[in-house]
Amino acid sequence: MQPTILLGLYPKPSYGYEIIQNIQKFGFVEGQAPPGMVYRHLHQLEGDGLVSSEWNTETTGPAKRMYYLTEEGKEMLALWVDYMENQARTLNAFVEQYRLIREQGTEQSG
Known about the structure:
The chain is of the alpha+beta class and about 110 residues long. It has a single domain (about 1-110), classed as Arc Repressor Mutant, subunit A. The chain has helices spanning about 1-10, 15-25, 35-45, 70-110; strands spanning about 15, 50-55, 65-70. It is elongated, with a radius of gyration of 20 Å.
């Protein structure tokens, strides 16, 4: 969940509701992410210095909390992406080995 929130904030600062809407695009959460879970992660990310926030009272209606990705958050997102790329390579190598072995088995039995 945390990498998706960081990526959701990467293009621009957002309100909690916008973040919830944006992270659906990444495919890690089916349907709408539970707001309570997203806000818990936002609070943790803020405590870790990866996200900052401030109240925006300049718009009409009630004040909204605007969340920003910090430089540390950008660095952490880059680390997550490196990790995911490595995992993807490992998974692709596994799938390729499976297909190779399956193909060899088909040739031997045929």
